[in-house]
Design brief:
single chain
Length: 194
């Protein structure tokens, strides 16, 4: 992935894509390699993401790595400590302050690896991912397989008609779709305006 590895500096790597595209799996792979290299690794996830575990990042294929659940991006700065590699999963749940936090971590010499959805369920950019993509040194866009037609999928299809932007779930609520098969539903009347 990295053809030139920076020395004596920090940097930001962003892994983005739709749900079921292997983002967390790739994050875990990179963090495990850093651990094998005996680098100090700190891993964080948003406290809101308790789908598979409260204290691990977990991929949909059940790969897992211990992590610290945090309620704000600012906490990551406070807890990163002596780590030389910082992993952050589900970045879209942290909001715009995550960009400055990642910049501060990288400016202090840390390798920052961030994984998250780049689009919400409507196909619109999911902040803070566009801003992170703009400041990252390395970007990996992962693709899933469309469950409808088998083409490469870069969209997340919400199966419920809930109109809230953030609804935590997995296969019970979402599936991967290609551009052609992705549909955006009108919100149910009772959910409009929430």
């Amino acid at each position: 992935m990295l053809s030139i590895v920076p020395k004596d500096t920090g940097w930001i790597e962003v892994i983005c894509g739709s749900m079921f595209s292997g983002k967390t799996e790739e994050l875990i792979r990179r963090l495990r390699r850093a651990q094998i290299a005996r680098q100090k690794v700190a891993v964080f996830k948003p406290v809101i993401d308790d789908r598979y575990s409260t204290e691990h990042i977990v991929s949909h294929n059940e790969g897992r790595l211990p992590s610290v659940p945090v309620s704000s991006a600012r906490q990551i700065l406070e807890l990163a400590g002596e780590a030389t590699v910082v992993g952050i999963d589900e970045a879209q749940f942290f909001g715009p302050e995550l960009v400055d936090v990642c910049q501060e971590l990288a400016d202090s010499g840390k390798r920052v690896i961030v994984a998250g959805l780049d689009q919400d369920y409507t196909g619109k950019p999911f902040e803070p991912m566009p801003q992170l993509l703009a400041v990252a040194e390395y970007i990996t866009k992962t693709l899933a397989i469309c469950v409808k037609c088998g083409n490469p999928a870069n969209r997340t299809q919400r199966l419920s008609h809930d109109s809230a932007r953030v609804v935590v779930g997995a296969q019970d609520i979402y599936e991967a779709r290609c551009r052609y098969c992705h549909e955006v539903f009108e919100a149910d009347d009772e959910n409009k305006g929430e």
